[in-house]
Specification:
The complex is a heterodimer of chains A (about 550) and B (about 190). Chain A has about 550 residues and is an all-alpha fold. Chain A has 14 helices and no strands. Chain A has one domain: Cytochrome c oxidase-like, subunit I domain (Cytochrome C Oxidase, Chain A). The chains are: A mainly alpha (about 550), B mainly alpha (about 190). At the A-B interface, helix 4, helix 5 and helix 6 of A face helix 1 and helix 4 of B.
Chain lengths: ~550, ~190
């Protein structure tokens, strides 16, 4: 890659006001995505804490049942569509052009339009709390016939607003997908062949292809559901020859791959951070890169494992059981490669590394429970119990959110030009890791014993584990405080860093921190292999922050 | 596919033009999945349903729909020649053929409106009504969007020298028109011939 001491950088700085306006700079948009999504993460977390407060006792005592339904529905919807997706897109927006040696995304204006739909979606969803009907209450999957009941009788009801928000979010995601795929295919710097791209770019490429292929099925389903709800049609209504199972197929045809859309970028972050803090090249780079594609392809043919209890015929159960278990192979390859990268490495346990190691540990746990549930007989036993909820939270929180945190810490000096406070970062990690496991582990034993999800009261025998989970949730809520304080104070007053404070490999570290508006004064010509740690770059002293 | 490094005063607009054909193609492939989800829903509902049409209705009027189909296919041929004319530098021919395509699109929409008016069942007539109006309506919206897109491209061609070296926007609009045509053919086979 180009010489690190590239002194001819045009030091045109980004004005802070740009972050509040319609900027077409991918770096500004990246930060906008990250900050906006984090605000929604806090809101979604608050909703979860109310849910957990209700579940402290077996009786219904904090909220009423309708509000409880609305709370978990909004919690799920906000966390998926307004935290995980946009936060991943924020990192990807910032990093992909820098990593492939481009000056911006292929369609900068489209990029900005895609971003500005996110706050609209969020505001719509939050406003639906104030409707006479309340929010949508059918859970984040919004299955008919529950979702097409409309008990309030209003045309503009919570479910209507929910569908509208999902549709807008879908349009935004498709715009993003078109932009990323075009950018990665057409805007790589000379010499940046597919097998010189960082694994992070590979994961974004695979994830966005999945978005483009699968998301329109949800859009189609949402349109039909909206017709059923508002115009009384009979696509999914079981009472008049409609078929609610079709909705489930369409929904999961997207929403299972959506889990990979969320998780693949997390795998990308792990693959960037671990080599940098183990001071070793990524083990089996090509295999890790290609495994992202294999996950995406196999992941498209597993959706009906969410429907083992939906009168799914046996041949279909067996097919989807086998295909689901098959996904464990390419994901296992990745975990193996990360562990092999750590093996005999010179480990530096800075905050990004801690989050990634914690994330991998929790991902392993999620992977094991995932394979358990892929087995149809077991799945039918735990169907609709907290076991599923626990598994899912080990994926979306334990894996993806941990990776997003790790990614934010890792690239924070690049984005801001300043270093965060390491000790606070470590406190943040341990609170998060402890809180997450306290919160989500107890869901497995109570799930196995039969505690149902989405019910506000429960049998007293589950009380003990539920108290542990609720305390974990409150701890998790508190864990965001050192993070927010750290980010704000370091952004304003952290000490300044050079181009490459981690001595990491990758084009993004060759430009100034923060990068100039057009990224590269001269488009680099790439000759070096990715992850060339060990030979070219060595990290002698642990006192890196002063470099 | 590598772009040679551009001059340092790279502008976003310039980059935008280069990537339009690929970006638009990706968008259309993705958009087609929405139609696939409707087609699959239609097929499953129809296969499951003991009586597809409401009482007293034997089937849809194939002949009028076939005429409309012919009009749309014909327009797809015309737009192909329009695009070739532009590539050959014949802007006047391009404009004439382009407007002819627009006219055919409007005729198609008019035919569609007439069919809706005379339809013996409404959107609430069970799965048959729901799927019929959704599929034809959603496709009709795409034809309408196509007509608007074509008109925008036409207006842009009036600026002198605008399309002298061809234009990726025209190719994209033409691709969209072919896409709408292909979707209609599948739709026609599923709704009227099956």
């Amino acid at each position: 890659m180009t010489n690190i001491a590239d002194s001819n950088q045009a030091h045109s700085k980004t004005h802070w006001r740009e972050y509040f306006g319609f900027s077409t700079d991918h770096k500004v948009i990246g930060v906008q995505y990250l900050v906006t999504s984090f605000i929604f993460f806090l809101i979604g977390g608050l909703l979860a804490m109310i849910v957990r407060a209700e579940l402290l006792t077996p009786q219904l005592d904090v909220v009423n049942r309708s509000l409880y339904n609305g709370l978990f529905t909004m919690h799920g919807t906000i966390m998926i569509f307004l935290w995980i997706f946009p936060a991943n897109l924020g990192l990807a927006n910032y990093l992909v052009p820098l990593m492939i040696g481009a000056r911006d995304m292929a369609f900068p204006k489209l990029n900005a339009i895609a971003f500005w739909q996110i706050p609209i979606v969020g505001i719509l969803l939050l406003l639906s709390f104030f409707l006479p009907s309340g929010t949508a209450q059918a859970g984040w999957w919004s299955y008919p016939p529950v979702s097409i009941q409309n008990p309030s009788g209003h045309l503009i009801n919570g479910e209507f607003v929910w569908l509208l928000a999902i549709a807008i979010s879908g349009v935004s995601s498709i715009m993003g997908g078109v932009n990323f795929v075009t950018t990665i295919i057409q805007m790589r710097a000379p010499g940046m062949t597919y097998f010189k791209m960082p694994v992070y770019v590979w994961t974004i490429f695979s994830a966005q292809l999945l978005q483009l292929f699968c998301l329109p099925a949800l859009t189609g389903a949402a349109i039909m559901l909206l017709f059923d709800l508002s115009f009384g049609t009979d696509f999914f209504s079981p009472f008049k020859n409609g078929d609610p199972i079709i909705y489930q197929h369409l929904f999961w045809f997207y929403s299972h791959p959506a889990v990979y859309v969320m998780a693949l970028p997390a795998f990308g972050v792990f693959s960037e951070v671990i080599p940098a803090f183990a001071r070793k090249p990524l083990f089996g780079y090509k295999v890790v890169a290609v495994s992202s594609f294999i996950i995406a392809i196999v992941g498209t043919f597993v959706w009906a494992h969410h429907m083992f209890a939906s009168a799914t015929p046996n041949w279909m159960r067996i097919f989807f059981m086998a295909s689901t278990m098959l996904v464990a192979v390419p994901t296992g390859v990745k975990v193996f490669a990360w562990v092999a990268t750590l093996w005999k490495g010179k480990l530096h346990l800075d905050t990004p590394m801690l989050f990634c190691l914690g994330g991998i540990v929790m991902f392993l746990f999620a992977g094991i429970t995932g394979v358990m549930m892929a087995s149809a007989p077991f799945d039918i036993h735990v169907n609709n119990t907290y076991f599923v909820v626990g598994h899912f939270h080990y994926v979306v929180f334990g894996t993806v959110t941990m990776a997003i945190y790790g990614g934010i810490y890792f690239w924070f000096p690049k984005i801001t030009g300043r270093m965060y406070i390491e000790s606070w970062g470590k406190i943040h990690f341990w609170l998060t890791f402890l809180g997450a496991n306290l919160n989500f582990f107890p869901m497995h034993p109570v799930g196995l014993q039969g505690m149902l999800r989405r019910v506000s009261s429960y049998d007293p025998q589950y009380t003990g584990w539920n108290i542990v989970a609720s305390l974990g949730a409150f701890l998790l809520g508190m864990s965001t405080l050192p993070f927010v304080a750290n980010i704000i104070s370091s952004w304003l007053r952290g000490h300044k860093v050079g181009n490459n404070p981690w001595l990491a490999s990758g084009l993004e570290w060759t430009v100034s921190s923060p990068p100039p508006v057009e990224n590269f004064a001269e488009i680099p010509i790439v000759t070096r292999e990715p992850y060339d740690y060990g030979e070219q770059i060595s990290r002698v002293n642990s006192d890196l922050h002063s470099i | 596919m590598q772009q040679p490094s551009r001059s340092t005063n790279n502008s976003h607009q310039e980059a935008h033009q280069d990537h339009l054909p690929l970006g638009f193609l990706i968008f259309l492939l993705s958009e087609s999945i929405v139609f696939v989800s409707f087609f699959v829903t239609y097929a499953i509902l129809r296969l499951k349903s003991p009586h597809w049409f409401p009482d007293g209705v034997t089937g849809l009027d194939v002949s009028k729909a076939a005429l409309n189909t012919a009009i749309l296919i014909f327009s797809s041929v015309i737009i192909h020649f329009a695009e070739s004319a532009l590539k050959a530098g014949k802007v006047i021919t391009f404009r004439r053929l382009w407007l002819f395509t627009v006219a055919l699109g409007i005729i198609f929409l008019f035919g569609q409106a007439l069919e809706w008016k005379d339809m013996p069942f409404g959107i609430n007539a069970g799965p048959v009504g729901a799927t019929f109006y959704l599929l034809t309506g959603f496709h009709g919206l795409h034809v309408l969007a196509g007509v608007i897109l074509l008109l925008i491209m036409y207006i842009r061609s009036l600026a002198p020298g605008n399309y002298e070296a061809g234009h990726s926007g025209v190719s994209a609009a033409s691709l969209f028109w072919h896409f709408v045509d292909i979707i209609w053919i599948i739709l026609f086979l599923l709704l009227y011939i099956w």
